[in-house]
Write a structure and sequence with these properties.
Elements: H1 2-12, H2 16-23, H3 27-35, H4 42-52, H5 56-61, H6 75-94, E1 101-102, E2 105-106, H7 109-133
Helix pairs in contact: 2-4, 6-7
């Protein structure tokens, strides 16, 4: 199990000291783990896994997880996003809630278009996150 930790240290070119300090784990816990005197607690493993952006299972076994299932946007999702985006941009253009400005300067058409593009990306990401999080069928087989 410690071998996977060592591989991650090499991959990310960090020291056990740095991991311990930044992940909030004691160096003693890492040292005892390396020497085989003890196994880290689940809480400690989670902190280390979070630091490297892996799962506890990966940290313990070194086995890659299957790729995360990509949740596609349906045509209805795309229509909903377009409707929300158009509504927001219409309110922005009509100055329904006052003039659109950043740092005291009004948004020019180019900045408004950039804002629209970024907002569209954000709405798509949120739709996917919400579909994954609130899927009523996710626990059914």
């Amino acid at each position: 199990m410690y071998e996977v930790f060592e591989q991650l240290l090499q991959k990310y070119d960090v020291t056990p000291y740095k991991v311990a300090k930044e992940a909030g784990v004691t160096q003693t816990a890492l040292s005892n783990w390396k020497l085989g005197k003890s196994t880290p607690t689940t809480q400690t493993l989670q902190k280390i896994a979070d630091y490297f952006g892996v799962t506890i299972d990966y940290l313990m076994t070194g086995k890659e997880e299957p790729a995360k299932k990509i949740i596609p946007l349906t045509p209805k999702d795309k229509r909903d996003i377009k409707k929300d985006l158009d509504s927001i941009m219409e309110k922005l253009a009509s100055q329904e809630y006052g003039p659109a400005a950043y740092d005291g300067e009004s948004l020019d058409p180019e900045a408004a278009e950039l804002f629209r593009e970024e907002l569209e990306i954000a709405l798509k990401r949120l739709k996917i996150i919400n579909k994954e999080k609130y899927n009523p069928y996710k626990n059914k087989k």
